[in-house]
């Protein structure tokens, strides 16, 4: 094979067009640098390998943050979503989360259209087989047919494809996911580099022809009315037609069939070595782990508006096909189900994220970034968040600007990266709200207030988003001031109306904003009091509904939770005094007096860049941090 150098050089090359790759390429191009997205197939850009859904608890937070930084995922979900819900709607705003069931085809089309219309971005279809590495720096990539592409930074986002092996029962074959080839040459090349590598696995359920499902007697699960919108710039009118999901469940017979089939399960016979996702287990895993449960819920989710295929969420499996058929047909509603695609598990290589910097650049090869499933995570949202960050930092590197990663108290993206890099992961990592210690600050409703200004400063946020954001921010301030000035007096409300709106009789005059602080008073109830009403612009016939809804929500949250939020902010300030203290690259932990051997080793291995990050490494005690601070002071 005679190599051919592509006539144009790039600043950043992104390898892989999944969820990490598309956000990485878009972020890098938005930053104004010449970006190339190289992927095995342009047809599979933005493809959802598993369930067609975006968001959910913890994940929805990531999607909003990606949106706040100008990313694509929320807008694609708005254009592709066929059922929207707010999960935990009755709980506090910190854990409320948006989830969209998506039409695969519409979602992919939305992502592709954004990529094709992005200035500074070139798409090219080829499999990457090699990296050009000289003097511990990456200089480009070589494709399977020998085309050499040169760039100053390369972002690898190759998902489950590295040495991918697909299992159905005791049969297995090589593949990146069903229908796509694995990435073996690149996997061999990466294994030759000094990164720590491991194997993980994930799985997917069989798909079913919806026409062979009997929906009689199954629980209907409609979307919320009015439907939530994912993107801060999104409108309800972006959504296509909305549909219902349904719910069924496994039963004792299903469980017997699974148990009987386990002697031919690749998981239970040791054929699969990779560790699976604890929080998205296969159905055979559930039967074993929760042996006393006689039933597990299955959500029947449509794959799209133009297909009959459905996704039975909850029965991911790699059992042999005959067992899959029996187990599916033992389930209520699925008695005559036709399986259109068997379920399977896939094993793949991942790289220990502790070998990365917080920018997601690898520690051993300058200019080489990893993002997405390759770092041991699972999920589209986790991948997209890392992709955005890696694309951004790759672009910053080529612009010779300092890297940026949000802190744990700024964004779930910060929590994700910090967890991965300080702790590593031995099983597929997914996001939960419980992973964030500053949950009250990191809400879905304020991701833009937390991140959009920073995104603008970095170069990620375009004029349209910036203008909307500024209008919204000013409107929130104006509305808080207006409500603070509005006075409601006892004579303004009859006793009956007061009870209805406030849950109590009003004994003395009160400011509108103070009334809103009461848990039982909603913004809508307050605005229905004549003396409060709504801001004039909200009453106008051509009111921007997005703006009005977002401002109302924000004012309400600020009124009700300010006390708690302030307390959390104080705690952060206290911790931050040392959080940002830099640990120089040259620090020699052997020279830090009093540190135990174990702590020394852990710090040496992780090489955290700040004291805050050092403190979060498991085994690094507060006493060790004090010794470190003394050492730093001595060095000055
Ligand atoms: P991917 O979406 O996998 O994208 C990788 C991209 O890289 C593809 O476009 C591919 O064509 C391209 N590529 C690969 N190698 C090369 C190369 N050498 N050159 C050029 N391009 C290349 N997540 C969950 O949260 N829950 C689940 O239940 C779940 N189940 C899953 C089941 C299966 C069978 C699979 C395959 C995945 C599952 N996932 C699940 C994971 C989810 O699909 C991934 O987390 C997510 O897609 C990762 O995004 P990514 O961008 O890192 O990689």
UniProtKB/TrEMBL annotation:
Keyword tRNA processing belongs to the record: yes
Residue span(s) of domain tRNA uridine 5-carboxymethylaminomethyl modification enzyme C-terminal subdomain: 559-630
GO process terms (BP): tRNA methylation; tRNA wobble uridine modification
Binding site for NAD(+): 276-290
GO molecular function: flavin adenine dinucleotide binding
Homology family: Belongs to the MnmG family.
Protein name per Swiss-Prot or TrEMBL: tRNA uridine 5-carboxymethylaminomethyl modification enzyme MnmG
């Amino acid at each position: 094979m005679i190599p051919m150098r592509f006539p144009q050089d790039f600043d950043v090359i992104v390898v892989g067009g999944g969820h990490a790759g598309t956000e990485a390429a878009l972020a890098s191009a938005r930053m104004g640098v010449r970006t190339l997205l190289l992927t095995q197939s342009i047809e599979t850009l933005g493809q959802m390998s598993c369930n067609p859904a975006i968001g959910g608890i913890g994940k929805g937070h990531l999607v909003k943050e990606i949106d706040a930084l100008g990313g694509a995922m929320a807008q694609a979900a708005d254009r592709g979503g066929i059922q929207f819900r707010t999960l935990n709607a009755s709980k506090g705003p910190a854990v409320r989360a948006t989830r969209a069931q998506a039409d695969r085809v519409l979602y992919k089309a939305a992502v592709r259209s954004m990529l094709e219309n992005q200035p500074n971005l070139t798409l090219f279809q080829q499999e990457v087989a090699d990296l050009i590495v000289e003097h511990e720096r990456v200089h480009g990539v070589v494709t399977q047919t020998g085309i050499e592409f040169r760039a100053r930074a390369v972002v690898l986002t190759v998902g489950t494809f590295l040495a991918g092996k697909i299992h159905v029962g005791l049969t297995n074959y090589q593949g990146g996911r069903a229908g796509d080839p694995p990435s073996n040459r690149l996997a061999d090349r990466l294994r030759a580099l000094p990164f720590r590598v491991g194997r993980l696995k994930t799985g997917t359920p069989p798909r079913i022809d919806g026409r062979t499902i009997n929906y009689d007697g199954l629980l209907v699960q409609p979307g919320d009315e009015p439907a939530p919108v994912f993107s801060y710039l999104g409108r309800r009118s972006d959504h296509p037609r909305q549909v219902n999901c349904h719910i069924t469940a496994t039963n004792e017979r299903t469980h017997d069939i699974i148990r009987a089939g386990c002697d031919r399960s690749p998981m239970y016979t040791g054929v699969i070595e990779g560790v699976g996702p604890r929080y998205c287990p296969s159905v055979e895993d559930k039967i074993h782990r929760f042996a006393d449960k006689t039933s597990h819920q299955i959500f029947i989710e449509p794959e799209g508006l133009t297909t009959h295929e459905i996704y039975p969420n909850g029965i991911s499996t790699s059992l042999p096909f005959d067992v899959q058929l029996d187990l599916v047909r033992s389930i209520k509603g699925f008695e005559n189900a036709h399986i259109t695609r068997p379920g399977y598990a896939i094993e793949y290589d991942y790289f220990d994220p502790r070998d990365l910097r917080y920018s997601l650049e690898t520690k051993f090869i300058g200019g080489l970034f990893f993002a997405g499933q390759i770092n041991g995570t699972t999920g589209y949202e986790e991948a997209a968040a890392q992709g955005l960050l890696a694309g951004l930092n790759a672009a910053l590197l080529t612009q010779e600007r300092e890297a940026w990663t949000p802190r744990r108290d700024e964004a779930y993206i910060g929590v994700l990266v910090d967890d991965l890099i300080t702790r590593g992961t031995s099983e597929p990592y997914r996001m939960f709200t419980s992973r964030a210690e500053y949950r009250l600050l990191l809400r879905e409703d304020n991701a833009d207030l937390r991140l959009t200004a920073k995104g603008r400063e970095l170069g990620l946020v375009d004029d349209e988003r910036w203008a909307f954001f500024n209008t919204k921010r000013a409107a929130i301030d104006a509305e808080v001031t207006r409500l603070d000035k509005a006075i409601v007096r006892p004579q303004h409300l009859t006793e009956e109306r007061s009870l209805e709106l406030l849950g109590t009789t009003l004994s003395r005059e009160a400011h509108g904003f103070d009334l809103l602080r009461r848990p039982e008073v909603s913004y809508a109830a307050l605005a229905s009091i004549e003396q409060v009403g709504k801001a004039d612009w909200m009453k106008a016939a051509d009111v921007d509904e997005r703006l009005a809804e977002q401002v109302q929500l924000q004012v309400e949250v600020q009124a009700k939770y300010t006390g708690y939020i302030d307390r959390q902010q104080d705690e952060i300030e206290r911790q931050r005094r040392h959080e940002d203290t830099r640990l120089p690259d040259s620090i020699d932990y052997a020279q830090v007096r009093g540190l135990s051997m174990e702590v020394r080793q852990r710090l040496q291995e992780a090489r955290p860049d700040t004291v805050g990050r050092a403190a979060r490494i498991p085994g690094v005690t507060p006493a060790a941090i004090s010794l470190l601070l003394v050492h730093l002071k001595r060095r000055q």
